[in-house]
């Protein structure tokens, strides 16, 4: 099942009890807001994993990087160590100026391969 969230604000999903017992993957943009939304999602579903929100995916798609208009700078407490490292690099502009990779820009075959591992 795929749930389209359209960004922040999916607290209503927390009312669906059976979601708390299912394997959940979150797939968002690789950017500061994508990680902030993942952090918010894990407030309701701490067992959720991220999909294609990693350094390898970001670096493999550098030709599609965009500039994030208003980067998030908040301290996020629900990211894995690898996610936190990438988030810190993005918010500190260590990879470039306000780097963001929209999920729609990730190659389809990369998505198919990742979904095959879920």
What does this structure look like?
The protein is mainly alpha-helical and 118 residues long. It has one domain. Helices cover 33% and strands 7% of the residues. The chain has helices at 32-44, 55-60, 81-91, 108-116, and strands spanning 25-26, 49-50, 66-67, 99-100. The strands form 2 sheets. Strands 1-2 form a two-stranded parallel sheet. The mean pLDDT is 92.
Provide a concise account of the structure shown:
This protein is mostly helical.
Features:
single chain; mainly alpha; two-stranded parallel sheet; two-stranded antiparallel sheet; 4 helices; 4 strands; globular
How many separate domains?
A: 1
What is the N-to-C succession of helices and strands? EHEHEHEH
Strand order of the largest sheet: 1-2
Count of DSSP H/I helices: 4
* Number of E-state strands: 4
Helix content: 25-40%
Blueprint of the fold:
Layout: E1 25-26, H1 32-44, E2 49-50, H2 55-60, E3 66-67, H3 81-91, E4 99-100, H4 108-116
Parallel strand pairs: 1-2
Antiparallel strand pairs: 3-4
């Amino acid at each position: 099942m795929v749930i389209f969230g359209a960004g922040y604000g999916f607290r209503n999903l927390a009312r669906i009890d059976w979601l708390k017992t299912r394997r959940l993957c979150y797939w968002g943009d690789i950017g500061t807001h994508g990680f902030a939304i993942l952090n918010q999602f894990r407030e309701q579903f701490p067992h959720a994993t991220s999909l294609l929100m990693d350094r390898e995916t970001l670096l493999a798609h550098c030709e599609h990087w965009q500039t994030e208009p208003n980067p998030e700078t908040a301290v996020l407490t629900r990211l894995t160590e690898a996610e936190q490292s990438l988030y810190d690099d993005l918010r500190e502009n260590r990879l470039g100026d306000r780097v963001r990779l929209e999920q729609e820009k990730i190659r389809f075959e990369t998505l198919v391969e990742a979904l095959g591992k879920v």
